[in-house]
Amino acid sequence: RAAIEALAALLKSKSNSRRAVNRGYLGGLLRLYQDWHHNDISNNYIHIRRGLLLCLKHITNIQLGRETFLDARGMEILFTSVQDCLSCKNLDPIITTVTQILRKCYPKELLPVPTVRSSYSFPLPGNAKAEPPCEGPEGKWLKGDFCFYESDGEEEAEKDLDNEDVESKEEDYDLETDVNKLRSRPDLDRPEEELGQYEAMCPELSQNFQELESESEEEKSLEDRTENLPSIPSHFIPSATFMKHPNYRWRKESVTEMGSDPGEKDFKVALQSWTKKEKCRWDQMDEKRDIAASAQDANSCEEEDPARSRVLTLRPLLKDAAWYKEMFYSESEASTNPNPGGRLENSDIVTNLLEKHQDHIPFHSPHFYIARAKCVKSIPDYKDVAFPDFWGHQPPPYSTPMLERRSGVQREKVLDDVRRLIQPGDVIGRTVFDLDEPSHSSPSAPGCLTFFSKFESGNLRKAIQVREFEYDLIMNADVNGNQHHQWFYFEVRDMKLAASYRFNIINCEKFNSQFNYGMQLVMYSVKEALQGRPCWLRAGHDICYYKNHYYCSAAAGEGMRGKCYYTLTFSIKFPHKDDVCYLAYHYPYTYSTMMSHLDILEQNRNPKKVYWRHQTLCQTLGGNPCPLLTITAMPESKKRDHLEQFYNRPYVFLMARVHPGESNASWVMKGTLEFLVSSDPIADLLRKCFIFKIVPMLNPDGVINGNHRCSLSGDDLNRQWLTPSSQLHPTIYHAKGLLYYLRSIGRAPLVFCDYHGHSQKKNVFLYGCSIKETLWQAGCMVDTAVITEDVGYRTLPKILDKVAPAFVMNSCSFLVEKSRESTARVVVWKEMGVLRSYTMESTYSGCSHGLYKVSKSFK
């Protein structure tokens, strides 16, 4: 034992490991380990066996060692030996070390896709060009050193650099310690005369309430729709001709090209015939007259832009006509009015669906949703509507505890992956869904699940059947990009009852995930919804998240050598046979959901108490309107004092969903809007004290096209606030312009807050900005006589800590980092002089204390 431990210590040196390999010691160590494993029946010499494994572990830290290990059939030897150890708890040190060696030495492989770039591309205006796809070969085994290897622990705990997350271990070099930079106010990033166009976005400052009483609600609503919009270049909004650019992929592809079951076509119903008459507002500066003339026309979006005129279909539902009859008709009706052939007509199904809905879901209407969805511009030119978005959902009837993680589940999954390599006999390897090559999909294979994701906010690029009940899934990258794989939302059908299906999403990028600490994905069942239980529920068991053997080459990754992927694996037992279910990373919230929600709020508000203006901030790069809301209280009367109080209310500026995959930010914004227009006394007081300017969705294009982080330009919009482009980042450019305008008239917001979601932490918390706290954290001397600072930036977080059960003050941070200087929080604080400028982070998972505290196992 002492000799082996000494050898293991020597082999920590890479030069010694190289000598050991060159002298043929690796094969000898494998034979020694096999001998001790076979003869140590009573497990009396675990330390010696583990010492030999540590020698192998150190040797395989070098590329030559891994190559020699594979040539010596080390994978098969260790995999076979570890099977005898799994049932014995005392052998955990052996199992853990073997698993680490197997993961490290698993041959590296490219993702089984033609290119890591997104399946969707979008031609950018002006001189900006979308980079051409970097073609890569089909995945093949490589033995090169492409990735950093995981730590000794079972969980990876590296910090997620994509989130605005300041950990205590973070290096101080990222903190901004230049006092002049912290205190300086940069010059205006545009001509000052350009700010005048934003006056039209503040009608509340010049509202003539003398005339308000004589106006009908319809006239007021129409006036709101025809407010002047910011002047923008003519090429800024893609025209119908521009949208047919040859590089504008997927524009004309039909759903049938995805290889859908021909039998399902019978359920595709044109929704134009049954959607409620609803105005689809499309505010464009050069079309205001057309809008005014057709304000009540349900088909106005088709008249304004023929390229957008299309028929949407509800996703094909269940194939079981008998089940529909049981749902919709009594036994007597079914016997007296049988349908020929034993199937229901399409129109009957849709009509009964709408009758059954009965508007029992608050703030949701299928009619409103379809009217809005018909007007959406998307790169794939969506022709289908996902059932959960159309039908809506109710909150779960019960609170869901965090999933208790079973001990050893991650190493079981890793060993299953290794089994594929050394025992490939039962691996099917059939592609059943492929966004890049629909003709390669074979969804009609017997016993195979059917996948689909070409609907609003959907994201699934490829599905490969590994075994009968196991599938590898690949997410699509953000449009015009090759990364940011986290958000997924797709449909699955043709499942068997009581079968446990395993899904492996193999191209995740974050270092760690709340899925390792009790979080579950969400699932929606169509059968459950039609039986009166329309709910997104937490689902899945045996969930874990770990580094896998796939990698991105330097060429395809644009120079990012060493980029590895991670696997999110989970198992699900579906509640019904042959159901239609939807799986998502988090509760989906689409652009059409948001727009229809605004329509419903506007109709249901009390116009005598709530001042509401719904305008368009600008058109997005993809041609979708970005809404801007103004909410405050109506003046008590037309008296001068009351009108002055109305005009002089301070502003609160709220934004959300700059990152499309952070759908929880939209749910928080939804609650904010519903509360602000409600009759709650506190909401009434807030309206009387403040004017709320709200941009509920800053990145509509990203949300529509299923992105996780970026816009159609391929840029993270929350890193563009320093110098946004009016062409490439219009929503940021005009949101910043509106803030500039408010500052120029002496009405800079009292509070600015940007809603986000956080995938690494629990609870809800704020990031703010403080010069002193930043300098103190960096260890700099602070002369309090020279550097003075209003501590009012801490007031709102402290209030929230007292009144909001999910909020945690201890998780808040007020540091200004160099890497965050182009975010909304820092730019608004520095350039607009807003002391209370925040990013609000909401967890995807749960809370670690307070009223909503989750299981103690996952703190």
From TrEMBL:
UniProt biased composition (Acidic residues): 212-221
Reaction equation(s) it catalyzes: (L-glutamyl)(n+1)-gamma-L-glutamyl-L-glutamyl-[protein] + H2O = (L-glutamyl)(n)-gamma-L-glutamyl-L-glutamyl-[protein] + L-glutamate
- Residues covered by region (Disordered): 153-176, 210-237
One GO term (biological process): proteolysis
Which key words tag this protein in UniProt? Carboxypeptidase, Hydrolase, Metal-binding, Metalloprotease, Protease, Zinc
Q: Which InterPro entries match?
A: Cytosolic_carboxypeptidase (IPR050821), Pepdidase_M14_N (IPR040626), Peptidase_M14 (IPR000834)
Example of a GO cellular component annotation carried by this entry = cytosol
- Know the name of this protein? Cytosolic carboxypeptidase 4
Any one GO MF annotation of this record = metallocarboxypeptidase activity
Pfam annotation, one family: Pepdidase_M14_N
Q: Which residues form the active site?
A: E841 (proton donor/acceptor)
Q: Where in the cell is it found?
A: Cytoplasm, Cytosol
Per UniProt, residues of the Peptidase M14 domain are: 587-859
